[in-house]
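An example makes the point: we print one protein in full, the chain in one-letter code, the fold tokenised, without further comment:
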Amino acid sequence: MIKRVLVVGATGTLGAPVARALLDHGYAVRALVRSTARAAANPLLDGAEWVEGDVLDAKSVRVAMQDCQALYSSLSSDSFDLKQSVEYRGNRVLCAAAAEAGLAWVGYISGAGDLAAFGEHRPLVIKANCEALFRHCGVPYTVFKPTHFFESLPLFVRDGRIAIPGRQVQRYHYLAAADYAQVVVAAMAESGCHRQSLTLLGPEALSMAEALAIYRDAVMPGQRIGYLPLWLARTLGRLPPLADMGRMAELFTTFDAGIPEGEASLLPAHFPAISTRCKQWSEAQALSST
């Protein structure tokens, strides 16, 4: 029986809502964090136990995993080089420790689509390899494959301006992190969702420009939405002070490739619905900022 869950990446934008949902459903949550100070500052983690450590250090992971029956990984990485990727290297340590500890369940957040089929894009290579780690670790697993999140929309705003890297014409079924988190908790408790990959899509299909226009109208009405050419972002990213722009350009080049989301997985009827729409989410953001 699962009573305590180790959450890795719990201070992140997508990890913290999962930790909160687990706590709200009565599970004990232990978060492996690099900084307890950052964890303490996040109200979503109120009630969680924090263990400071390094996900790349097997001893730290084993200590954090003691007395846990499940693991959820929301690791991300600032490198698209598989050999340097903290997401891949850390999840490899986590999967080995989970198998050694005999956990009842492990979960991992990947991305929608058949990522292994697009090996020319390094961000997808990392996700596909991490999916394989969890599928073959010997522990009951669920690989969650959500599409884009509404929580990404504020990241397009910099210095009061909105800019989309590239044209990004594909539509995505955006979803809210809070809805996603409820599905994670339900899937952990549902044995029929173990040893499965679940594609999770929101209720409406929007291009990035359409989603940002809805967000803009709610949060910063009248602001113009511009476009940053990917060639310019790649060029600027070659300058050491702007290396982050180079990584951003590579990520959005991947999005620009138009990789299909795939069909949403059929979830059990009693699962919470993924129902939040962009306007509803954006208006809530506007209210929370006043």
Notes: The chain is about 40% helix and 15% strand.
